[in-house]
Amino acid sequence: MRGNAAKGTMAGGGAARSAMAEESAAKIAATGGRATRVGATAGAAAGSGAAGGSAARSGVARGGAAKRGAERGVAGAAKRGAGRSAERGAACAARSGVAKAGAARRGAACAALLALALAASGLTAGCGNGAGGGGATAATAATAAAGTAAPAAEASAATAAAAAKPDKVEIKIYAPGDRPVDMDKVLDAIEAACPDDINVKPNLVFIPWGDLADKTQLALTSGEDIDFIFDAPWLHMDQMISQGMYKVLDEYIDRHGQNLIATRGDTMWDANKWDGHVYGICFGDTYGGGSRTYYLRKDLREALGIGPIESHEDVVAFLYAVRDNMPDVIPYSMDKGALDNNWSSFYVEQQFERTGVGHGFGAAGSGYLIYTVGPDSTELKNILDEPNDVIVGAWREARQLYLDKVINPDILADNRTGEAQFVSGKIASYVSNSGAVSPDMIDDLRKNVPDGDIETFTEFSYKPGIEASDFKVYNFQCAPKNAKNTERAVAFLDWANSSQEIYDLFAYGIEGENWTAVGDKQYTPLEGYGYFPYVWVMNPAQQRYDARYTQKDMDALMYVTKPENFVKSVRSGFSFNSETLATEMAIVSEVETKYMPALGHGVLDPDETLAKIRDEAYEAIVKIQGEIQRQVDEFVSANPQ
Prior knowledge:
The chain is of the alpha/beta class. The protein is built from 24 helices and 16 strands. Strand 6 and strand 7 form a beta hairpin. Helix 2 packs across helix 5, helix 3 runs parallel beside helix 5 and helix 12 packs across helix 20.
């Protein structure tokens, strides 16, 4: 499933190498938000008291972060985008102060303090005519403060400091995977660095990948007290949104999400909304479809005397050679429940990416019961009435491989991920969403096979204008409808993206203990803290890369961080609202869960399985198809490319 790529095989994004990321970095430097902590100067430059008031909140209330963030977060971005920073600084500062009235409300006291300082230095002359209420407040405060004695100023400072620091709240976040060894130590460091006006104690609750779907759904339906919960389109995000389980986050993002937007860029941010609204904060570092890749045991290929893998047919031939000559090695295996990362779906998406986005619409994931073909296609088809040669052909191939014992005969019984099976040394291949070989994966393999080695094969072209994308990402944090601390939780995750230093702490742990920096965009992992920025911080502008990646791998990772390399689908930004189809979605979800992973792994016969699906869910599938078609038509009409 797409979540596997998120689990650490791919470290994407790169401001220095990506036009998109450069623009994002420049935005961070220019907005006067938490990354730069220079809002006061930007507010004055804009000639806006409102901007100065909003900036004062960042410049004063979080002044401590400036010292840490300026060198890396600002200087690096300014070096890459200085030409745009000056031009955008004033506009963004004004927008921060005027459009974000909530910032003035949160930081009014601090704005007054800054106004006092500016008045004393004569810097408030250009800040008296702001478009929002913050400007008037700041100007009034400055005038009054000019005639106030020092003891009164000190009393005002104490009052402002108290107002700027609300009572500490615990933010409970559900995350997938296993809890890292040093997680508590890192959370303590995050809590200590958290700005006073946010004042959050983070609490991450980890759920094993195999239990993720069931336990997160149970937590939501039972009304468990959670502030953010991990979800994804490949999990059950569409379903949960349609059932009203998640809050719309628009107002919270408007008030507190400027760093979240700036580090992702409009391309990513706008493509990952539902009906034009934010239902989850998106985490991703790639704008492409994931460059679907076969991971292969290079040492086994060489031992068999087989030349380099250059085609899908070569992959299949290698797997049969392993079966025939290495009885202790299983040629291929994968996650047992993977709906869209099994042999068949992997091949389908790899082929569709080269000919245009082939998008599967499903209740429980991308099962290809309902699909489109081509980036400009707005026509929905269903597999029962219009069987697609690529989709059905992939199922037939998987079935033959399973019958021939090339695919793991016990694939539905193994609870491990495909990667875990692969690095055990007992599997010759699996599939993933990353075009690069993780150095950690090689290390893990060599713990079990000292001379083991890994190579990859993909049909992804790495040539601009061939692959298509809808710019969707695969991982989100969503606020349950009964979440109590959404305001502070959004501000907390926005702060996590406020500077490179803070991002690094969330993503990689404590520098010097868990990792060391290698230049501006790479790092060397040490011990104690697992890789999971995709859970709560990942963005294209601030992501680092393992310094052990080969240049070939780095080139592949960087390529998919550039949106201009892809053909944009006319459906980019579309999301299906299934609210009126609860019964039909439940029927199709049950059918997909029951049949599609096994069908994709080759365990079931395609013809027999499709006949069963027709008997059990045909009317529901057709009804869903019709509603998706209606919504797609409306979306494309309202959003011409």
